[in-house]
Structure to design on (1344 residues):
């Protein structure tokens, strides 16, 4: 951590601050110039509150030199993490596709879609039981009943299931879920993240609509700090000024995250643009950029989907997509 | 709702869709031109899923004409809502200041600050017991104990208390809190909003960092749809490309919200910029723009605050600010 | 164009407006419901000023149904445009790479880099003679002398040259340039665009940092409206809240632009992230998403480049990249 | 400037870099810790290209400590600049309003509006002769003829005139203009800024839609570096994700700019929201935040304005606004 002092800082103010740091076991490196006086703090600065320092009236600026995340940091864990569940692997060269409807709507629907996506080569069945909707008047999901139907679809197909949690109180209901998803709107629901950190189960963490990659990794760190290191990161589009698409896919997040963390990174091209015909080019771009997997919405009858119909593929469209995904993943050296 | 068809739409496709709408009790107004065929849906379109329509392959675009919020809508409730609690009023010409530390840190601190802000003219004591922090390694708040200390500060001063909730499981702990705050990161924690809708207690709802005003009003609608119409809206800065301040205060949100809703609107200038010396100009601008109140961070010792010290005023600075706030509010015709 | 009236609109106001439109040769389709009264305008609404209509006090909203661009519109020109110059083609299945230094610095440098990128398979030499720099104290380019050196490099290698123009007064200097580039900061320098519309020469138009795709196409339309239809669109990253990269590459712009226009679309991965090691994954993603070409910065000595050294590849790195670009373009069915 | 090295940096690499800096007359302060090795550069680092340093493969990060602008910097010019022309002053406690139509449309219109705004207390007449329009098919302004009509309006009223320039070639036409405006889209048209730096005439520089305050000040620096220090900064709304208004007024820019520069800062509430009824609350907020002036669009017949009718006030509305502006400016201690 580097601390830059104002020209008006008095020597005794700086000395007192430095004494505080030394009492915390930190070393001070002093650098004093004609116009600039700064110090570097050396040692474990994880406990230093950057706001504490910034609030000192004689401090001009504070800059953190090391990343604030530890368990998620590639520096301290140079091997890529492979998340494995029910025999499926993601990360470290293993590529997987998670597919299914936005919402679980009824038994027939989820079982039909599950069979379809399995035959096309999906490794996981996704489906929403608890649905975060902007409007209180929209369909809110089948909730506990939806989880039951997902388990039935798993029995019918063998596909492990991925589904979203919205509240710590629902954790017991998710005991038998294979991968728990944290949605974009809950990326900084820290109470939820802390509780998920106590589970021994993969967590698919979606990036918030306006969260930086550092904040994204800090939310992963919340889960990992509790002991659960099976975190899968999912980029699903960020909010920008552009209006022709629902969100802007941040494709650069794939290589940038991979330069910072060992965790697997998947892309959700369905939510990124919110438009079914854009799923294919974005999915292929994700593979080319180095993603470890895809999450794709598939519905047996998109025009009648209870949510997100505009971005859902039909099973036939998904089947055609998977042919291209398989050859593209192979071209880029991934195994599926 | 207006639905615009593609040039390639076949008459029988349009007829089938129209028949579906008529079966839902909606009226169809047809408008067919050389290059454009569209229909207007008349009636209660609140139940029509705009995604259902958009996902039809023969539909080019769908535009909503009426606002999706009802209880929060000024159209159906033209009188401004005055939220009243413990004898303090916000809205409809009543201006109130909520002040106190970011975090409750100990008994001495919260009682000292409470007394100070009361003497300076604050109407409410704010203070965080449950703290959403970006890092799992930062101070997470005193939690239940912090709530207890807030109640003590209330006993000592008579100031009603405002404090943040992060989880539905904590609701019982907040029974005796005067105003429950929902933070920016939880603005779309819909499970939490739904539960707060069943309380009979004012909710201070903060706008999310990247949420539109329509989404903000839809989150208020979640609370109101459950029966709790005592919602106070709080703008606290949005996330933009600008880097010299933590967030960008959206001052225009004040008049724009007031043109759309009857709910009171307060501004948090402390979080907006994240810089103590900017609180005064932003607070005065908020009053000039028509805000109904302010939420301001005050700490007895900002450099040693456990959170947000960089943006906290000292009690003396707050006292000076309040003198300007009082005269400015009076100038703009508000009563305090 | 659809015009939605306020509830308070008086019949005679609406009649007068409609009479105005009919006098302009437009047809009116009326649609009147219980809560919503709207009209659709049919005919060539290109001349109707949407602000004129919006400013009427009895108008609630106006929505454009058709795109405001004509010559750039895929609807009226369904075949992809192939821009051809000096025997090199871009668009319609033809893929081309433009490479070279950010700035032309001296004869030896530009000729060395030109030879290197030619041997690696670049189709065009890029290089800046006039440089837009944020600071007046930074290197501003070699200007006219730089153009002369680019011509020498073209003589030495046969590579056509692409270079940026910043001012209408410089147009005579660019007579012998093969492709004129308009930089992101000048995307809405309309006086410049108009003049370029009178040339018979390909224009590479870069998207502004915060311009929507519709605005981007309108800037292309400015050039095309003057008669010059040889426009190449270049996405080079947009400005968002993310801080770990200089800009955010909007990869979705590729398929979205291709759904709206017949013009070729190239990607500049060097400027998008501003980081040399990210060029490769972003370049491959661009090909996978359907781009028609790439613009890449290459410098013989990046650490000593006078501008943009941080994002420049060495000739050896570029050579390795081109091997991957060639095989990837072939995999995705493009010819180079 | 602080340079942080990678763990993998070799001593001889660092030594060589330091030798280069010392050869430029800079002093090096070395700070070496267990996990962090950094140096601070002391002296005039204005000539050091931060990209040069960042591109070194053994450099982890570079941070600038001092601002890159000098002439615009408050540090080196602690007294506020008062821009004076034709007896009107802006800055240093002097508040001025610039008003008039978006576009000059005809003699009768501009003279009528000029007389109206003069009577209401405007200090300057604004009006566009050269108009930057998104569409090539929209009205492009009366150009040279519009400038002539502005001069007539000045003769008729005595009001100095403010009007926008779009191209260096037009500078001779602006010789007799009192204040030359640079529009948001040209804020980084550096060739134009350089030429304006050679004039002895106030320049009203508008902030670009997606430019940071530092970039804004660097554009002012371009003008000042040429010798023209009469720059007025104008904030007119930035581009964000919010869709209910055209732009988001960055009110915090007023105090933030005033903490960094001595130049006057005015606000354009008409363009900020693009909505006539929002002009008043935003204008009052601007005064409260400390602005030195306002730029406001007034049209004798907004519904028939050739541009920006939706945001123009009628002369009667402007007259009512000015009454509030005068009393508010007085309340906040400004003289008009």
């Amino acid at each position: 951590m580097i601390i830059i002092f104002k020209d008006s800082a008095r020597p005794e103010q700086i000395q007192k601050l430095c004494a505080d740091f030394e009492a915390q076991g930190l070393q001070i490196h002093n650098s004093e110039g004609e116009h600039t006086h700064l110090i570097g703090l050396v040692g474990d600065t994880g406990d230093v509150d950057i706001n504490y320092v910034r609030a000192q009236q004689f401090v001009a600026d504070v800059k953190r030199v090391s990343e604030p995340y530890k368990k998620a940091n590639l520096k301290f864990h140079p091997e890529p993490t492979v998340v494995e569940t029910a025999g499926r692997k993601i990360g470290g060269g293993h590529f997987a596709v998670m597919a299914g409807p936005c919402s679980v709507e009824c038994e027939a629907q989820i079982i039909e879609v599950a069979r379809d996506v399995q035959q096309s080569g999906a490794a996981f069945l996704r489906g929403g039981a608890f649905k975060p909707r902007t409007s209180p008047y929209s369909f809110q999901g089948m909730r506990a009943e939806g989880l039951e139907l997902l388990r039935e679809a798993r029995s019918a197909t063998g596909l492990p299931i991925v589904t979203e949690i919205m509240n710590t109180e629902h954790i017991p209901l998710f005991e038998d879920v294979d991968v728990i998803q944290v949605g974009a709107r809950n990326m900084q629901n820290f109470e939820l993240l802390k509780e998920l950190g106590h589970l021994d189960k993969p967590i698919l963490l979606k990036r918030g609509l306006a969260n930086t990659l550092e904040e994204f990794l800090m939310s992963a760190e919340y889960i990992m700090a509790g002991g659960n290191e099976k975190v899968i990161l999912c980029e699903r589009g960020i909010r920008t000024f552009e209006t022709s698409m629902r969100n802007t896919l941040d494709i650069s997040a794939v290589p940038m995250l991979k330069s910072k963390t060992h965790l697997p990174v998947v892309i959700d091209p369905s939510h990124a643009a919110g438009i079914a015909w854009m799923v294919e080019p974005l999915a292929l771009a994700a593979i080319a950029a180095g993603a470890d997997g895809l999450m794709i919405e598939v519905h047996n009858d998109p025009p009648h989907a209870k949510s997100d119909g505009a971005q859902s593929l039909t099973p036939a469209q998904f089947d055609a997509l998977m042919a291209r995904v398989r050859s593209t993943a192979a071209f880029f050296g991934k195994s599926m």
